[in-house]
Structures are given as C-alpha cells and as structure tokens.
Amino acid sequence: MIKVKLDDICMAQSSNLMQKNLEKISGNHPIYGASGLIKTVDFYKQEKPYIGIVKDGAGVGRVMLLPAQSSIISTMQYLLPKENIHLNYLFYALQYFDLGKKFTGATIPHIYFKDYKNRELWLPTLPEQQRIAAELDAVCSILAKQKQQYKFLGELVKSKFNEMFGCPVANDMGWAMNKIEPELGKLDRGVSKHRPRNAPELLGGEYPLIQTGEVASAELYITEHKATYSEIGLKQSKVWKKGTLCITIAANIAKTAILGFDACFPDSIVGFTANEKTNSIFMHYWFSFFQKMLEEQAPESAQKNINLQILRELNVITPPIDLQKEFATFVTQTEQAKATLKTQLNQTETLYKALMQKYFEDEGGQE
C-alpha cells in the first residue's frame, strides 16, 4: 500500500453554470448546488458519477457524491477520480478530511482544490477500497433509515394533535377558548438581576442555568444544560420546578420546552405553570403551531422580543382535560420510542466514526 496525495488520484474542474441562467430551462438531467438538487435541465456536464465540492459561500467544503449525467453550478467544483481510485472510497476520505474547517475568506468563505490537493492518504488496492466503501455505505444506509424513523415519530405527534384537536389556529372543532393567564395557569418571567458575563462569581455552582438557546434546541424536554449558578447566583435568581413549560421571549421567539429538572433561567424566558384545565405537553404542541406567527409579530429592535402581556392574552383551544391527558400519554409513549431509537442512532454514529477513524486517521488525518 502506498501513500498518495489527492492530486495524484483525482483532478478538479470548475463550473461556469450560473443558477440565475437556468430558470427557463427544463429537462431530465439533475443540476446541483450547495443545498442539493436545484432542478433538472436538458443537458449535463459529467457522463460518469463524480464528487462535487462546495467551494464558495454557504456550506463551503461540503462533499457530495453525485450521479452520472448531471452537473453542478459555479459555486461548486467537480472532483473527478483517476483510474486508481474508487469513487466512494475517495468520497469517504474527503468526508473525513472535513474540508469545511479549512476555508478562507472573511466575507465570502471559499476553498479550492489547490488548498487541499496535497492532503495525503494511504491507497489500498482497488478491491480493498471497494470493500471499505461498501462497509461504510452499509452503515450510512442504516443511519439514514434511523434518522428517517426518528423524524417520522416527531411528525406523528403533530399529526396526532391535528387528528384529536383539529387545527388550533382555525379551531375547526369548536373547542372552548381560554386565555393563557389567568384561565389556564400562571406565567412568570425568569429572574436574573445581574448578567453573568459581568459577574463571573454568579456561575460555577450546582444549580442548573437554562438559556434561550437550550430551550430553542430542545425537542420536548430540556435534558441538559451548559451553565450553573453558584450560591450567589441563586440568591439573585429563582428555581423553577421540573415540568415547567419554558417559553422564550427574546432572540428565539415563542420556542418552548419542558424542564426535565429543577433549574433557573433569565428574564428572556417565561415559565408557565398549568392549572387543572391543561398540561405542559398539550401547551408545548399548541405553541408549535403559533411560533412562527408570534415571531413575525415580534417588534424589531436590537433583537426581536415579545412581552409577557402578549402571551397572557393569547387564546388557547381548551379541549376536555381527559382528552389532553390522552394526547400526553401518546406523546410519552412516542418519546420512549424516540429515546430507544436515539440510543440506536448514537450507537450507529459511533460505529461510523470509529470506522472512519480506522480507515482514514493514519492515512489522511494529517497534512
């Protein structure tokens, strides 16, 4: 087995196809950009399968394995294998190199073949390249199926909400309507009398501190946190109980998630405590239908925000609590299935990373 440079096993070609010039063209041959398929046209530039690399702008360094009789636009670059390299093996080697970390340019990021053509990797025989690529293909196929199943379970819950309660915006099932406060529970802003970045002594203790980003990135439950308050930090804040529905009112507007543990949060987050007429799971999914509308209505300032009064006056469909509990039970069962699938997905991702490291770290992991 020999060590080679990328320049020895593939060659780059530029594209002069501008997306704006393709609007009136149609056909059967796909043309790709940084985000994937753009459209189909009546011509193609590459007869055989190839690799496309995003060289300019958003997604710079992304590696795409693309089919025969297709093309790419000018923000991408063709990478064509020579006779001594298996295309899929080259694709995985490039994935491992993580070209997106090597871009240059402050205004418009870019990376060209000249920037990475001297990267080295060991070149096994073609049959061995094919075996390695097939092994990685199989793991990627499992990963894709698991991700698809995970996404389906998330969509299933929203579908169940619509099935049980209709459209919450139109209220086409004619449910009673109640304002969030005081009719359905209590809303209170988080408390942080001082900004932690200006007072580091507030941080580093045992009391979890949740920020808007953690609410926005959670799915249903907030299960982890990055920061904690010290005893001093706790004294100028407030602890919210596990099960509280967190609602963001600044930066990320009307994103919601349920606390999976007792925690503090700042005044950019509102805590909702449900009464006997509703529950946090139902309210979380109700908000998911209104989040974009609330975000669009938020006044423009240094950063978007909404106030507590806007939330208080929102009218919420209020089906019988037993029906809401039935929905919450369905959600809980679905979340359990998602947790099992997430564990399997994490195991598959760990296997994929281990195989990539096994085949490419020593070979191509260094400049």
What does this molecule look like?
This protein is of the alpha+beta class and 367 residues long. The chain contains ten helices and 18 strands. It has helices at residues 6-9, 87-97, 113-116, 126-165, 180-184, 212-217, 231-235, 280-297, 308-312, 321-364; strands at residues 2-5, 10-14, 29-33, 36-41, 50-54, 63-66, 71-72, 76-81, 120-123, 177-179, 185-189, 203-209, 221-222, 227-229, 245-250, 252-259, 269-274, 315-317. It has a five-stranded mixed beta sheet. Strands 2-8-5-6 form a four-stranded antiparallel beta sheet. A hairpin with a 1-residue loop joins strand 15 (245-250) and strand 16 (252-259). Helix 2 crosses helix 10. The longest helix has 44 residues, at 321-364. The radius of gyration is 26 Å and the shape is elongated.
List the helices and strands and how they pair.
Elements: E1 2-5, H1 6-9, E2 10-14, E3 29-33, E4 36-41, E5 50-54, E6 63-66, E7 71-72, E8 76-81, H2 87-97, H3 113-116, E9 120-123, H4 126-165, E10 177-179, H5 180-184, E11 185-189, E12 203-209, H6 212-217, E13 221-222, E14 227-229, H7 231-235, E15 245-250, E16 252-259, E17 269-274, H8 280-297, H9 308-312, E18 315-317, H10 321-364
Parallel strand pairs: 3-7, 13-16
Antiparallel strand pairs: 1-9, 2-8, 3-4, 5-6, 5-8, 10-18, 11-17, 12-14, 15-16, 15-17
Helix pairs in contact: 2-10, 4-10
